[in-house]
Amino acid sequence: MNGQRLPREAGAAGIDAAFAAAVLEGLAQPQKRISSAWLYDRRGSELFEEITGLAEYYPTRTEIGILEAHAPDMARPVGRAAVLVEIGSGSSRKTPILLRALAEPHAYVPIDLAHDFFLASAHALAREFAGLRICPLVADFTQPFALPDALRSDARPRLGFFPGSTIGNLSPGGAIAFLRIMAGALGPGAYMLIGTDCTHDPTLLLPAYDDTRGVTAAFNLNLLARINRELGDKDGVNDGDSESMDGRGAGGERFALAAFRHEARYRRERDLGRIEMHLVSRRAQSVRLCGRRFDFAAGETIHTENSYKYSRDDFRALARAAGWLPEECWSDARQRFCVHLLRLSPHAPHPRTMRRAEPPATAPSSSSF
Questions:
Q1: How many CB atoms lie within 10 A of CB 342?
Q2: pLDDT digits over 14-69, tens only?
Q3: Domain residue limits at 118
Q4: Cα distance between residue 241 and residue 11, in whole Å
Q5: Which of 19, 40, 125, 290 has its CA 20 to 30 A from that of 114?
Q6: Domain at 55, CATH number
């Protein structure tokens, strides 16, 4: 790791305020919604890792198979001594496959919000790849950010890595905005390697997002447990430290987890399909958070995630709209998942204003579905 020591803990300044603002604003909407980014606290990240090993959840093992079969071809155009920038790194399980394929990689920059979880993964990679410079950043990758100063002026080739079909959690417009942000962060001549889920078969998709063991349900409901723990009013209720899945305080003002259920839905709009995840209120109820009351009718939902599914051609068109040129695409034999290699167009628009992301030692993530 080039003699540098990874910090053991990440500062969380600003995250509580951002989480509170996202929850309070989202629950005040006619269709209550909370961004899927907030599903990935430490417990959520652990549950997601369990999901990726389930029989119903095909994307992870399918993408790993594609990477294992084609990583040398993916790495070859990038060149020697590249800087690998992984977005939403989480457990970084797929990263070693790519690092081993790259010719003498110079540095690895994992970027995520779930700082405690992804820092542990960065430590593991530091042990496996001795001499590789590892520079973790805690950042919201849907907002402009900059690489560490030591790498920003470096002329080495850069490869962005966004596996796991996480880009599907963004709307098509949001995905274009994200790709433009990455153009600004990575700079001229950069490449991106992006995984996309491309099946539109509900009989395959719905079990993947609502498994028989209930792990995905626990993952979704964990968001309410996190809200109770971090934002629930403390007057007249417990202190939120209990790991009980009920989550009900003496005053009944926190989320009662047993009063909600997980639901996965498949939606088709024009040429695009998407999975939606919701938390459905089983009865009329109310909760109080940060001094504010939120009422739920029976059957009312909190929309917690979208996962858009792109055909090969649809994603290539989206990439071009963001200033990236499709170079190559690899898929599995059943055409369920694609890994796209993109190259930044020399004519791509460059964002004027970049906000510097802080390294985890001083600042406040995501794996995905």
A1: 27
A2: 347 889 999 999 999 999 999 998 998 889 989 999 999 999 999 999 999 999 99
A3: 49-200+310-344
A4: 21
A5: 290
A6: 3.40.50.150
